[in-house]
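Just curious: can you write a single protein's sequence together with how it folds?
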Amino acid sequence: LVSGHLDPGSHRKVLMKTGLILLIVGHLNFITGALVHGSVLRFVVTALDATSLHYGATNTASVIAALLTISCGVSALLLSRYLGPAALKWALLSLSACSSLCCLCCLLGLLVAIGLTLGNQGRVLLAPCVVTNIALAPVSHECPFDPTRVYSSTLSLWAISLLLEATGIFFSIRCLLLTLDLLRLSP
């Protein structure tokens, strides 16, 4: 420690590890959001149903949060290599703040989406299907996807996304605190 702050070598290592973690978390979150959208939500979201609109908005926000998390990770990696430029420090400060806030919003939106889905027992997810017998649904031409596992698959993907958002919040805040220390703005 140098006068209450980490030395530059420690900043480099921590920023590099944090940046790599953010890159991985961001990419996994992006893939999870794409899977949820591609397999279910593209068929479900309609302007007439508030719950399905919430699903679509939350999923879109999750993808945006993933892109912010990836950008934050790239900036952290760049800053770990080049500690000098103040513009890079300010960029990481703003990206990490935006990433942590967006991940928090997505986390709350996902909790609401999971609660709504559990509350309506997946009826909104199965709304595009006109099926009287779920066992016959995969062979039915009236359903744009296989409804037999859509409920559990969507909830599982949302749970994974929830964990990724929480991890993104933690490491984005870590980047924020490191950058504040680098800018000598921390107490």
